[in-house]
Specification:
Number of strands: 7
Strand content: over 45%
Largest sheet: 7 strands, antiparallel
Oligomer: single chain
Length: about 100
Amino acid sequence: MTNGAAGRHNPPRMPQPALPGDIAIRRRGSPGVEIALTHYHAGERQGRHAHDHTQISFLLAGGLQETIGRTCNEVTTSAACIKLAGVDHQNLWGRCGALMLSVR
């Protein structure tokens, strides 16, 4: 299809992919600060991506495999990770899933 006088093609809008995990609690505090408690199901994946904000994540229960850049890490309970804005990473949650607290 074309857009009348402009003669441009307007493709249909694609739905945004759903984020993994079930957010149990999300709170906003001071400007720019957000805290989320999220449960991820076993085997859930989040493909390679980067955030536009710095994030500190605490793994409270379960486990995951996180690849940051070219480095792959097995992460177990009671771990913490700080990722600066723009850091390329992907996640695969473990066989028991995970409970994570994230602060941005």
